[in-house]
Write a structure and sequence with these properties.
It is a single chain. The protein is α+β, with helices and mostly antiparallel strands and 172 residues long. The protein has one domain. 26% of the residues lie in helices and 35% in strands. The protein contains five helices and nine strands, in the order H-E-E-H-H-H-E-E-E-E-H-E-E-E. Bound molecules: zinc ion.
């Protein structure tokens, strides 16, 4: 788990820098329902993937859970989001999840009223050079997701992929 948290500030730095002209980006309450943000960084044979999603996309609400039913829905969602190898499919199975950390604001009071889910994944690849496509399966698990905005970062380049339920492949 350590590596993920070491990398988190790096992600934040890059994301903040690249969105300097979008003051509302990633501020609480300013997310767009239907949209998921992915940050993908590759370092050697390791892929760090960070996901942010409005609660709406995942469970249909964004306030603190108020009923057993809502609590169950959130628990189930956390479990689904933990199935990294089902959500992100790498060509030829060259990469597999090694660490997963999923959290949500919905289990506590949501002050700004727009609670989110956050997931951090670490994938280990046999040979990163064989990796051509990441197939993002989130749309099948969470039908409220209409768009995935994937920011892809290596030490050489930075790219943005806009995915939807029809075009769901990140081609590297
Ligand atoms: Zn919201």
């Amino acid at each position: 788990m350590k590596a993920l948290f070491v990398l988190a500030p790096l992600f934040l730095g890059l994301v903040t820098a690249s969105h300097a002209n979008e003051p509302h980006h990633r501020q609480h309450g300013a997310h767009q329902h239907g949209q998921v943000e992915l940050n993908i960084a590759i370092e050697g044979n390791t892929i760090y993937l960070e996901m942010h999603s409005p609660g709406y996309n995942i469970v249909g609400f964004e306030h603190q859970v108020q009923s057993d039913e809502q609590h169950q829905a959130v628990k189930r969602a956390l479990q689904l989001l933990g199935q990294a190898d089902a959500l992100f499919v790498f060509t030829g199975d060259v990469c597999q999840a090694r660490e997963v950390d999923v959290t949500t604001e919905l289990l506590q009071p949501v002050r700004h009223g727009h609670g989110e889910f956050e997931a951090n994944y670490l994938f280990q690849c046999k040979a990163i050079t064989q990796l051509e496509v990441i197939d993002v399966q989130l749309f099948d698990f969470f039908p409220n997701i209409s768009e995935v905005r994937a920011q892809f970062i290596t030490d050489k380049e930075q790219k943005i992929f806009e995915l939807n339920s029809v075009q769901r492949k990140i081609r590297l």
